[in-house]
Amino acid sequence: MKTNRVSYKYKKVRDINIFYRESGDPANETIVLLHGFPTSSHMYREVLAELCDDYHLIAPDYPGFGESDFPLPDIFEYSFDAIAKVIDELLESLNLTTYTLMVQDYGAPVGYRIATAHPERVKALIVQNGNAYEEGLSPGFDATKNFWKSRTTENEQPIHEMFTLEGIKWQYTHGTKNPEHINPDNWNLDYFKISRPGNHQAQLNLIFDYQNNVKLYPKWQKYLRDNQPPLLITWGKNDPFFPEPGAEAYLKDVKKVDYHIYDTGHFALEEESANIIANIRDFMQNL
Known about the structure:
Elements: E1 7-13, E2 16-23, E3 30-34, H1 45-50, E4 56-60, H2 80-93, E5 99-103, H3 107-117, E6 122-127, H4 142-149, H5 153-160, H6 165-173, H7 185-194, H8 199-227, E7 231-236, H9 244-248, E8 257-262, H10 269-285
Parallel strand pairs: 3-4, 3-5, 5-6, 6-7, 7-8
Antiparallel strand pairs: 1-2, 2-4
């Protein structure tokens, strides 16, 4: 009998309480779900509920996100290297030795760091608007690129707009077929977390560090070519940050790709969860 029960747990990693959602039988194959910005494991709530009959699912929140601890930026280094190491250690502490990685947005630079460090552990990849190619950086990144060049107050200002309630709502609703289908709990929860004292600084540090992800794209592409992990792509083509060319670019390096493009935005699961969950189930059954 199928159960939709999800457990909500904490695990201490480097003196940081990391929150994670878990569903399914640990004896089954594991899918690790890595979230994007500015959200948390909350974005995978339907995946956790719907796939738990056949799979074991783990969805952590990064330090400073969701229900995980928020160490201040003068205590914890908000970089993708640091976050990936914490999540890698979490997975090791949970005795997960093989798993499929599902990555979205920030989940891609976190997940690819884990995959390149432990290619033998990653059975397959599920990529939902998670970029690894310069072709996938839209003009929506122009303000961020100016920020990378010079971290001035003037260049910070457009980034701060991403932290407002309207800015976060826009990230969820832009490019969707019907914004009324998108649950406002998403942006209200994210805004509450990102508005904690000191969190804007942590997020600015991460956005500034994102340029180091772009520098690692060739390494991640080599990982894909050398290891040929089975790859499922489910992509919202109207993403203002990572448009469809970012999805198409994977086809250059990976031979076995299950490819699905949806007429929706950055958070494709919000409008296409039923189809994407069906894609995941079919993909996993054919590994």
